[in-house]
From TrEMBL:
<feature type="transmembrane region" description="Helical">
    <location>
        <begin position="281"/>
        <end position="304"/>
    </location>
</feature>
<protein>
    <submittedName>
        <fullName>Type II secretion protein F</fullName>
    </submittedName>
</protein>
<feature type="domain" description="Type II secretion system protein GspF">
    <location>
        <begin position="170"/>
        <end position="297"/>
    </location>
</feature>
<keyword id="KW-0472">Membrane</keyword>
<dbReference type="InterPro" id="IPR018076">
    <property type="entry name" value="T2SS_GspF_dom"/>
</dbReference>
<keyword id="KW-0812">Transmembrane</keyword>
<feature type="transmembrane region" description="Helical">
    <location>
        <begin position="6"/>
        <end position="23"/>
    </location>
</feature>
<dbReference type="Pfam" id="PF00482">
    <property type="entry name" value="T2SSF"/>
</dbReference>
<keyword id="KW-1133">Transmembrane helix</keyword>
<feature type="transmembrane region" description="Helical">
    <location>
        <begin position="100"/>
        <end position="124"/>
    </location>
</feature>
<keyword id="KW-1003">Cell membrane</keyword>
<dbReference type="GO" id="GO:0005886">
    <property type="term" value="C:plasma membrane"/>
</dbReference>
<feature type="transmembrane region" description="Helical">
    <location>
        <begin position="130"/>
        <end position="152"/>
    </location>
</feature>
Length: 307
């Protein structure tokens, strides 16, 4: 019975996919032009600020990218905003299409896992109810669908913090190059070439791509800040766009911003140190309570036995 239900589900899914592929949708010309403009602007931005991993599609297959692209268009068509997860994925060097495809495949694997186990056990004359397997499959599908996004957000938060630290050092290097008599574009390029860390390489590649496309360096840095969700890069781009012709004011602004970033990082480190100190204090209190119970327990048992 389980095998019959699984076969019916597979056939039904195939018929549904065939119907979706053969069905033709009427397209509104205005909506099609708006979608085309959005795709062109997105492609331009990704070409300008994408990392090497994103440019190489991160090892994702073409089928996964096509499937993820269809999912992205469907989600954007119903008004679901994917900007937040897109910034996290860009910081991780991954594509949104590949992430969506991975999420759906993970959810499908979580849903089919109990059903496959139930089918295998039914061959061994161990009967597990179909409703229980279906409910367990739905729960596992929800868990497996959320896990990729949670992992990406956790890793992206760490990388974004490292990126901000690199931006602070980058501002100091740019200020020193400006003090040496270089112009703003030359100072930006020279400062980005002094390190081979992943964040500095991302900045250097963005500046190089901007020069090849005829885009100003500060505009490219602003696009990169929007892409990876780093406000400091957007502020730097706005400051350079306003005072790019006045080297003295640029140096003062960059030095002040670098100092502000260092103070912010120091405050974050002190806050985390305070949280860990509180955690250690709680752990010590728990140990003390356990030790007191260990000392009091024999005397308490003796009193109770005498009474």
């Amino acid at each position: 019975m389980t095998l019959i239900l699984l076969a019916g589900a597979v056939v039904g899914a195939g018929v549904l996919l065939l119907g979706l592929m053969l069905s033709t949708q009427r397209v509104n010309p205005a909506a099609a032009l708006a979608r085309l403009d959005a795709e062109r602007s997105r492609a331009r931005r990704e070409q300008l600020v994408s990392s090497a991993a994103v440019s190489g599609q991160g090892g994702e297959s073409a089928a996964m990218r096509r499937f993820g692209g269809q999912l992205r268009e469907a989600l954007e068509g119903v008004g679901i905003n994917l900007g937040s997860i897109r910034r996290d994925l860009s910081l991780m060097g991954r594509t949104l299409e590949g992430h969506l495809a991975t999420t759906v495949l993970s959810a499908l694997a979580g849903f089919l896992m109990p059903l496959v186990v139930a089918a295998i056990l039914s061959v061994a004359q161990v009967n597990i109810g179909i409703p229980a397997s279906a409910v367990l499959g739905i729960v596992l599908a929800m868990i497996f669908a959320v896990l990729p996004t949670l992992t990406v957000r956790s890793n992206a938060a760490d990388r974004r913090r490292d990126f901000r630290h690199v931006v602070g050092s980058f501002l100091d290097l740019v200020a020193m190059n400006l003090a040496g008599g270089r112009g703003v574009p030359e100072a930006l390029q020279a400062a980005s070439s002094l390190s081979d860390g992943w964040a500095m390489v991302r900045i250097r590649d963005t500046l190089l791509t901007a020069r090849l496309h005829g885009v100003t360096p500060w505009a490219a840095l602003g696009e990169l800040g929007d892409e990876v969700g780093v406000d400091e890069l957007r502020d730097l781009a706005a400051a350079l766009a306003l005072v790019a012709e006045d080297g003295a004011k640029v140096r003062e602004s960059l030095a002040a911003r670098a100092g502000s970033l260092r103070r912010r990082e120091l405050a974050e480190v002190e806050g985390k140190a305070g949280q860990r100190s509180q955690s250690m204090l709680v752990a010590q209190l728990v140990l003390c309570v356990g030790f007191l119970l260990f000392l009091v327990y024999p005397a308490l048992i003796g009193v109770l036995e005498q009474s």
